[in-house]
Amino acid sequence: MPYLTKPSENTQKLLEEMTELLEAGLIPSRIFNDPEIHQLELERVFTSAWIFIAHESEIPGSGDYVLRYIGNDPYIVSRGADGKIHVLLNACRHRGAHVCRAEKGNSASFLCPYHGWNYKNTGDLIGIPAYNDGYKKLNRAEWGLLEAPHVDSIHGFIFASLDPDAPSLEEYLGGMKWYMDMIFGLHDGGWEVIGTPNRWIIEANWKTGAENFAGDNYHTLTTHKSLFDIGIYPVPPQANMSGYHIQAGNGHSLSLSIAPNMDDPGPKFWGLPKEVVEKFDKGKLSAEQYEIAMRSRNSMGNIFPNFSFIKVPITPDPKRIPPATFTRVWYWRPLGPDKIEEWTWILVPKNTSQEFKENSYRAGMTAFGPAGIFEQDDTTPWKGIVRSAGSVNFGQTGVHLNYQMGLEGMGVAKKVTDWPGPGNVYYPRYEERVALSLYRQWLHYMSSK
User: Fold this and answer.
1) Which of 241-245, 295-299, 351-355, 394-398 has the lowest mean pLDDT?
2) What is the 3 state secondary structure string of 42-88?
3) Considering Cα of 265, then 271, then 273, then 274, what sign does the dihedral take?
4) Would you say the pTM of this structure is higher than 0.85?
5) Average pLDDT of 306-320?
6) How far apart are CA 313 and CA 442, in angstroms?
7) How many Cα atoms within 13 Å fall on the side-chain side of residue 99?
């Protein structure tokens, strides 16, 4: 699709320089706080890629809707009477006023508060005040709400793409689908979101959030050391680095903390309790997927550009409460070059007990979210990253950041040649190729003509 803005000569030079240096593990700091880069991202990345926008359990019934964003543009995610999910730009076709102002609800139609144009929850224009006096030759079929040309879902996660020429969601996910099936496909009843998403604003760049979950396990040795020390997570920090980094294609990546063998006494199936494991539908996974799931202690990943997730056992009180496993997903909404709105949901398998759901929710809220201890640990250094990237003597003078950990000759990480799943895989997790794969895909969109 055509782009509105051409990169300035200075930014074009930056993108070319980054293309040359990326494989050497060098990234210009400036990309983490630059107004022109931010605007180009909105026009090139967020209008072209598939963007996570909601979970099906948030709009289970006909007429249910939630308000969400693609980039910074507001969209209504609604379920029509036919059960189909629509992703509609929240802008009246008459003057552009928002036709829906409640964050969530149930409605058969959306009425513009300015001049009263009325739209079905499928986006069809169904009413214009004084139609015969002012618009009797208007073809209403041509003036419905603008709808995302592509909407699809996987395991209930709804994605939309604004690019008419976008590949299918399955093609876009590539090898990541194999891992999404492994992590989210064992529960035959599907998943449900608990409550409404947590939302808050922090001084950070959206790419830092995505990169953190793409496979930055290195920071856990420092940032989260105190949490390991008091036993919140039931695996020692060095053992936790034992695992795999997987570049699943198209900038998507996964990081697995995994037991060295099937007999390891540590957590299995991410520490899920017996009552949950007994309800697995094993037939949904291949033998290879099932074995990896069994050995998994925690899994985290990112679907390019800005949908992140984690599945991990945590205890809010190591001395009194055993760990509970929670699954949490994030959406990084870019509000500016140095500001993001974090959206995050906790999900639970539908066919599990209320007790498990409550324990899982409590563990998830303890670890992440506005008051979560892991979230607090993470976001404090993120603020320093954007401040440095925007500073005259660091970000704006061509300083490069180091992403060389685990590159050839740098460390102990080796390419795994007998891995049963898709993607380029490295072991152990002392490496940063997963982050480089994210920025390779970012360059693909940012450099498109």
Assistant:
1) 394-398
2) HHHCCCCCCEEEEEHHHCCCCCEEEEEEECCEEEEEEECCCCCEEEE
3) negative
4) yes
5) 92
6) 32
7) 34
pLDDT attached to residue 28: 97
Residue count of the chain: 449
Task: List the structure tokens of 345.
Answer: 């949901």
Neighbours of 82 (CB within 10 A): 8
- Give the SS3 label for residue 268: coil
DSSP collapsed to 3 states, 286-349: CHHHHHHHHHEEEEEEEECCCEEEEEEEECCCCCCCCCEEEEEEEEEEEEECCEEEEEEEEEEE
Q: What is the pLDDT of residue 235?
A: 87
Q: Give the mean model confidence (pLDDT) for residues 131-142.
A: 95
- CA dist 157 and 137 (Å) reads 41
Beta-strand ranges (E) seen in 137-189 are: 150-154, 157-161
89 forms bridges with which residues in the sheet?
75
**Residue with the larger pLDDT of the pair 263 and 300:** 300
Closest by alpha carbon to 248, among 164, 325, 192, 309?
309
List the structure tokens of 375.
């979230």
Cα 384 to the center of its chain, rounded Å: 22
Task: Give the Cα separation of 208 and 203 in Å (integer).
Answer: 11
Looking up tokens 């007990």, which residue turns up?
Answer: 353
Q: Answer whether residue 70 shows pLDDT above 70.
A: yes
Percent of the chain with pLDDT over 70: 100
